[in-house]
Fold this protein.
Amino acid sequence: MTEPTLRYRRILLKLSGEALQGDRGHGIDPKVLREVAEELREVVELGARVGVVIGAGNIFRGVSAASEGMDRAMADSMGMLGTVINSLAMEDALRHAGVKARVMSAIPMKTVCDTYAQRLAMQHLDEGEVVILAAGTGNPYFTTDTAGALRALEIGAEVMLKATKVDGVYDKDPARHPDAVRFERLTYMEVLARGLQVMDSTATSLGKDNDLPIIVFNLRTRGNIRRVVCGEPVGTLVANEKLAS
């Protein structure tokens, strides 16, 4: 059997915190962790270099807390710490799957994990480790989507993979509207003009200004990470016009 060929050799996988909770409604589902770790092991064995950014919506959402009266900077700091919890859980799952991995945090916490430095992250990736980039950008008011786009650019990723609970970007919420239409390809300008909730506007602008393609796909379909990395048409591709045409 012919081994699949990689389309993308260096990727940034953006996981929402909610993706890790599975059907539990909160916290971390060990089964989901194991499944993601196994999929990442497959693409690492194919030769891909993988960075990961994980949100914290399964633990704490800073924006929601701020809307209820908490200081926004304090709430976002709590959310960034939540991403470290998720990142450590993912590191453990990867190690159990036989994959070398490490967490690098934008907020220094040396007794827990390494501190993020772009040069060191690149070195670890080149050595075949999965590098999990925690604590967002280290600053309040920036989402983990923005952190994902920023880190993707810093590590030289060819594509940012945004894993979600749906199979791409729709013109409206498919959970509420049975007639919702899924897009196969979108330009960044279309995303901004239509106000589509692919990522926040800062992350979208980063991708647009730096020609970083984003593929939005369903994490729950087994094998999708490998399919995307090998170039199969999965989910929705968002890119500048020259790439999305």
